[in-house]
Amino acid sequence: MFEPLVITVALVGAEVSKEKNPNLPITCKEIARQAIECYNLGATIAHIHVREEDGTPSSKVEYFQEVKELIEKEVPMIIQFTTGGAVGMTEEERMEPLKLKPHMATLNLGSMNFGDEVFLNTKSYIEKLALKMKELGIKPELEVYDLGMLEMVEYLVRNGYVDEPVHVDFVLGVKWGAPANIETLIFMVNDLRRRGIKFTWSAAAIGKHQLAINVASILLGGFVRTGLEDNIYYKKGVLATNQELVKRIVNLSNELGRPIATIEQAKLILGIRR
User: Fold this and answer.
1) I want to staple 63 with a disulfide (CB 3.0 to 4.6 A). Which of 2, 12, 50, 267 is the partner?
2) Does residue 182 fall inside a structural domain?
3) Domain count along the chain
């Protein structure tokens, strides 16, 4: 039907608290253990944020290193670090974990109102991050939160900051960003095609919209991001686990006739050489 499905599990993020969902992993060992369990269920990419012991977001390199080493000790999962960190972190804090050379890292393509705060990503910072990832051999995942950020995808490609085929993640449903509906997703995918850019894509959606956008991504030939970072519920009133959310995507993809990518297939599709 389509090429095999690559599943990213976004395990913890920077916004959700353990008070809202006790299943949220906080410590390095918890994050790594859930990533490994999700890999065994069918996830191929672990999207990594880290937290302090009190649950607040962290950018400590030693935490990223511990999670990375714990995962790689047991499974050959693709490790993807955040460079978004949390609102308020400095540019240097957000870049620092890249020196550990994960397979992938996120590259947020613009500034936006993020709830009641501002998520700042200046053009110069985006360029700096892109060049650093290129220098270190890290595959960027281009995070598109709104329509104007599609222009930045083309700018980075045309000016040599990123190499084609690029991998784009459409993040839908963030307050004040692009809405989480299928019409918006289709428009974004078709817009990049019209620009003549070679790309693969995945989609994430916040809260109650996660499942619908996940299913649409499977059917439209994209990849899927799921996990507690984006949505803490399995269904209305029922708290989820990362493992349950991954297992559901695997089951749905199998029912719809789309195979799940192996690590070797995922690396080939995404152009990850390490």
Assistant:
1) 50
2) yes
3) 1
